[in-house]
């Protein structure tokens, strides 16, 4: 293994070669080397999910350590699992575990499906390896289990040989089988992800993407990669850029879209190298979209998120999704409560122009849930065509909605059902006013049962009890209406 100081020379001719960067990962991920640079404690031990860093990642950490303490903290939290996190048992499987006997048994347990979903969710279908499906019309190809950096919060557990990414995908044969299945299924929206698909070489990438680009049935093709910020030199590769440009043009010619989705969590990741990578992609005529996960200690304050989202907006990147942190093994300390997440979403709506605000989502095992900003309400006022709105300043306003026959029919039906239920419930409630002990006493002394017909007329004392059975003089009277 090379000495770490030899590989951190960013003036070397190899520095901009992404293959060279990936080859240096063992030296840059070695805890002894990282401890000698002061990036981890000398007592740090490798965990099941191994640290994964390239020279570029290490150099960025070292630069941030002296120039930007907040950025340094964010990068450290993203790069290393907390030392307090043991090799805990996995909390959450995004993909269904077809390979576990317990999953097989659970699926066959004779209990209602809704109860199973309530406790364990549904997860995505992975009956074809390297192909994941959660939503109608969208299929996901897991093109590889390799990434440049192993993110500490990764729900695919990249860096773990038994992790979800490694389990779900494999060699090119498995990936191509998934691609062919998607084309046969005629899925219109396809996401190629991983791991990071851009860690595949150009030839493999061409092999995976070409059938999808050329398939008449694929309408939107998204390529997910974090190499824009984790290994930007991947996008200095002219051969790759020419290939991506060609794919974008081919899809455009048949009125379809080819997009790149990246993942940035902190503005310190948008280095000059990352900006160059973004501009190279955009120069190919490809739209870049970003997704950001809100993580405690990294970006869970409005100032950090605002700075990041505004910077991305300025760079022409579409802020696509803002994710609540998922329950991933060993990352509890990075998670943000839902209440705080909603509050941040509310504040972002207040501070950012509409073009910069991403769609906020809770990621669950029954799919992504849109999250509305905290404090912003739109409540229909029954039997009017008004909506009661609460603005980001806390002002209330009655907004005139368009005529909505469906809403009024629903309201009328609800009112009708409520009245009927009340008519039934009130007499029952009145009956239950008799103390239990007293009622028991009465029931025990019933000697005779009589049916009362209302047409015969009741004594005055009984009138108020019409239609309610009652006991008097050891007789149970059952009033019947209409006899
Ligand atoms: S780049 Fe994505 S897939 Fe790879 S480790 Fe990070 S979060 Fe996981």
UniProtKB/TrEMBL annotation:
Lineage top rank: taxon: Bacteria
SUPFAM superfamilies named among the record's database cross-references: Radical SAM enzymes
Cofactor(s) needed for function: pyridoxal 5'-phosphate
Keyword Isomerase belongs to the record: yes
GO molecular function: 4 iron, 4 sulfur cluster binding; isomerase activity; metal ion binding
Keywords assigned by UniProt, alphabetized: 4Fe-4S, Iron, Iron-sulfur, Isomerase, Metal-binding, Pyridoxal phosphate, S-adenosyl-L-methionine
Domain Radical SAM core: 133-358
Protein name per its UniProtKB record: Radical SAM core domain-containing protein
Native source species: Candidatus Taylorbacteria bacterium RIFCSPHIGHO2_02_FULL_43_32b
């Amino acid at each position: 293994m090379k000495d770490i100081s030899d590989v951190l020379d960013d003036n070397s001719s190899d520095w901009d070669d992404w293959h060279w960067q990936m080859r240096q990962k063992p030296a840059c991920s070695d805890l002894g080397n990282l401890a000698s640079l002061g990036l981890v404690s000398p007592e740090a031990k490798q965990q099941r999910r191994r640290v994964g860093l390239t020279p570029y990642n290490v150099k960025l950490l070292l630069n941030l350590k002296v120039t930007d303490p907040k950025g340094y903290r964010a990068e450290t939290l993203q790069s290393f699992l907390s030392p307090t996190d043991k090799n805990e048992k996995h909390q959450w499987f995004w993909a269904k575990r077809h390979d576990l006997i317990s999953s097989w048994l659970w699926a066959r347990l004779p209990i209602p499906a809704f109860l199973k979903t309530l406790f364990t969710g549904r997860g995505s279908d992975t009956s074809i390896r390297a192909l994941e499906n959660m939503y109608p019309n969208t299929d996901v190809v897991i093109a590889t289990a390799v990434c440049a950096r192993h993110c500490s919060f990764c729900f695919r557990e990249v860096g773990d040989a038994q992790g979800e990414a490694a389990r779900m995908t494999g060699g090119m044969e498995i990936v191509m089988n998934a691609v062919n299945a998607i084309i046969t299924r005629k899925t219109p929206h396809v996401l190629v992800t991983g791991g990071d698909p851009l860690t595949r070489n150009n030839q493999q990438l061409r092999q995976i993407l070409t059938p999808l680009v050329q398939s008449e049935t694929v309408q939107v093709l998204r390529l997910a990669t974090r190499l824009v910020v984790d290994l930007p030199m991947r996008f200095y590769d002219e051969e790759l850029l020419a290939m991506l440009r060609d794919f974008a043009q081919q899809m455009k010619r048949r009125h379809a879209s080819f997009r790149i989705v990246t993942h940035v969590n902190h503005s310190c990741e948008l280095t000059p190298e990352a900006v160059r990578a973004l501009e190279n992609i955009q120069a190919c005529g490809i739209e870049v979209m970003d997704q950001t996960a809100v993580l405690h200690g990294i970006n869970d304050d409005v100032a950090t998120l605002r700075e990041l989202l505004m910077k991305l907006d300025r760079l022409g990147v579409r802020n696509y999704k803002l994710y609540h942190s998922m329950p991933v093994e060993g990352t509890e300390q990075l998670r943000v409560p839902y209440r705080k997440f909603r509050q941040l979403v509310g504040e972002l709506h207040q501070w950012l122009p509409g073009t910069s605000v991403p769609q906020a989502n809770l990621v669950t095992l029954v799919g992504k849930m849109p999250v509305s900003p905290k404090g912003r309400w739109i409540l229909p006022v029954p039997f009017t065509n008004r909506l009661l709105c609460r603005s980001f300043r806390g002002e209330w306003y009655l907004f005139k909605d368009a005529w909505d026959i469906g809403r009024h029919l629903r309201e009328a039906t609800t009112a009708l059902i409520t009245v009927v239920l009340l008519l039934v419930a009130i007499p029952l409630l009145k009956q239950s006013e008799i103390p239990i002990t007293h009622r028991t006493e009465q029931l025990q002394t019933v000697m005779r049962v009589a049916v009362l017909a209302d047409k015969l007329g009741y004594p005055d004392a009984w009138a108020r009890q019409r239609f309610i059975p009652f006991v008097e003089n050891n007789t149970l009277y059952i009033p019947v209406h209409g006899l």
